[in-house]
Amino acid sequence: MNEVLQYEFNGQGLSRVYENGDWMIGIKNYKPANALENIDCVERHNETDELFVLLEGECVLLYADEISSDVSSAALEFRALSMERGRVYNIPRGLWHTTVTMPDTKLILVEAAATGAHNSDVLNLTQPQIKAVREIVFSLQQNA
User: Fold this and answer.
1) For residue 25, what are the β-bridge partners?
2) CATH of the domain at 76
3) What is the dihedral of CA 128, 58, 101, 127, to 10 degrees?
4) Could you write out the DSSP letters of every residue in 10-41?
5) Around Cβ 66, how many Cβ atoms within 10 Å?
């Protein structure tokens, strides 16, 4: 007899709670590295989209378009939005992004199971970029 399987994760950070070979579902909770004062990088997935759903708490989705084709120069235009519970947020492949989380944040993450370091990039932000990111997110939070 088949049974319904259940998954949960209550620790800090991300846990890939389900994979079937094609896609993966993860639960992403607050971790200090995703607090506004600690954001120092963005990432992008080069082959697949990524989906987020906010379940609990507050989360700011920070994303950036390249305004220069030279990634080493890291010329990015940052934007941010406050996530709303129950909405699905699609991060298209190739879009630089990160989540800014608070201690009570819980997200669902859905992406291709094969997404990983081999087909993704992480970009360490410069000090001026970190300052700009903090100002954008802080302003968004103040106006919420």
Assistant:
1) 18, 110
2) 2.60.120.10
3) 0
4) -SSEEEEEEE-SSEEEEEEE--GGGSGGG--E
5) 17
101/98 Cα distance (integer angstroms):
10
Q: Where are the alpha helices (DSSP H) in the chain?
A: 127-142
Rounded Cα–Cα distance for residues 66 and 52 (Å): 22
How many CB atoms are located within 10 Å of the residue 54 CB?
23
pLDDT at 64: 95
Mind listing the pLDDT tens digit for each residue in 8-66?
A: 999 999 999 999 999 999 999 999 999 999 999 999 999 999 999 999 999 999 999 98
For residue 111, the tally of other CB atoms under 10 A from its CB is 22
Q: Which two tokens stand for residue 89?
A: 């947020």
Range of the structural domain that residue 41 is part of: 13-142
Based on the structure, what is the number of domains in the chain? 1
- Whether 65 is in a domain gets the answer yes
Does residue 144 have a pLDDT over 90?
A: no
Q: Is residue 5 part of a domain?
A: no
Are 83 and 60 spatial neighbours (Cβ–Cβ below 8 Å)? yes
